[in-house]
Amino acid sequence: MLHLSAHRRTAFALVVAAMLTVALAPWALAKGDVTAKLDAPLPGDGDVTPGAQFVVGWTLSMPEGGAILPVSDSSAFLRLLPKVDGSPVTITGQEQPAGSGHYLATLTMPAGGIASLQVGVRRETCDRACREEDFIVSISPELSGYPAPAAIVAGPPVSPASGGQNLVAAIPFLGVVLVALTGTVLIALAFRRNRRAIGA
Q1: What is the DSSP letter of 154?
Q2: How far is 66 from 74, CA to CA, in rounded Å?
């Protein structure tokens, strides 16, 4: 009969729990047992300029044996649906820290704002053949408890055309400055000639 020490029993239990989490994840996803919690509410239409990038954080968890386990090491993603005509945008999340079931992804604010946001996990399912499937999970109204990420990580890119327009707009001002400098030089020269004439 195999006898394990308390430490080895604890380690063995953790390994079995992790294996069960990975093995049962597709089944739990199909049942809709996996829940997502955002770190912070999504920004509103006026909070982020269209074209600017912002970070969304969220957690994935599932019930197992009376406990809530993180859904870790999975292909978690966000799917952003724009308000204005446009195709849905899917962004893969990065788990931070590893093993936590907490993910981060950088999104770009579409013109017109966000109609809705979906959270999903891509898993391989096998029956007669293996294939990858996207499972959309429910988003809890509760927040994850993780610190809210920075609202904006980058502003909208400035196009060369807009830079050229700014230069064109500045030309009249530069002309006024040039005329003023020229007038100042001419007045100074005239004043100097008058002083020489008086001295002579």
Answers
A1: B
A2: 22
Side chain identity at 53, as an amino acid letter? Q
C-alpha radius of gyration, the chain, whole number:
31
Q: Domain 6-139, what fold? A: Immunoglobulin-like (2.60.40)
Mean pLDDT in consecutive groups of 10 residues from the start of the chain, 200 residues: 50 43 47 86 87 95 92 92 90 95 95 93 84 91 90 62 46 49 55 58
Which pair of structure tokens corresponds to residue 78? Answer: 């966000």
| Distance, first Cα to last Cα, the chain | 125
Instruction: In whole angstroms, give the CA distance from residue 152 to residue 109.
Output: 10
The overall pTM is greater than 0.70 = no
Q: Where are the domains of the chain?
A: 6-139, 158-200
